[in-house]
Amino acid sequence: MSGTAVFRQQGLRALSWPLLFEVAWKNVRLRYKSSLLGFVWTLLNPVLYLLIFLFIFSKAFAQVENYPVFALSGLILWTFFATTSAHVQGALVENSGVLRSLAVPPLVFPLAQWMAGVFNLVLSLLPFALILAAFGWRPAPVHLLVLPALLVFTLFVFGVGLALSALHVFFRDVGLLWSALLPAFFYLTPIAYPPDLVPEDLRWVAGMNPLYWFVDLFRTVVCDSTPPAFEQWVRTILLAVAALAMGMLVFRSLRPGFIANY
Questions:
Q1: Which of 122, 213, 235, 243 is the most exposed place for a label (fewest CB within 10 A)?
Q2: In a 3-state reduction of DSSP, which class is residue 187?
């Protein structure tokens, strides 16, 4: 049997969807277990960042028409990327006891963590829209394009997280390395500052950061209230497909050694 056939047999086709949804819902509950504020923490983190940005940068970037909307639209994506990629990355190791003792497809746990992250993201869209409205943003039909934009972005994050989760089984340093790299990605991505602040001769470096293009796509819809250009869609879709392909390839290649390294 070929490697692709094995992966299909032990991958999505082997998943028990009721089990997957149960694990995903358990992950949502565990994130806020014994927490007084519960889901509110999903909103507090980017809002606290926004308050810091307003205090430090609101007067520094006069070229940005509505800085609070600009900053918060980037923070929405960043919060999802940082939290969900970290949860997906640790999913296999954190559930190693279950995977050693029960015949559960390993893909269940990274996929369930991703689903829990997507659930939180969708649930937070309405409160975020209300916060944006408080700063003068007004919804329009074009803003429905945030849904396909977010779908493409969430698939990209899953691909990255899936590759990390498989590597983390063999190399525990992956978790520590990813925690160290996340702040670097934050500062390399134009979240608190406008993209034109990057010097002309260094913009190719910014372009190497995939998050740069997803934030650009999202802000075109939310901040500019215009449909993204065709090349923006193509670029981000290709990035998402490449991340998914990479994640699946790494997961499939390393899966035979999971049991021995949990």
A1: 122
A2: helix
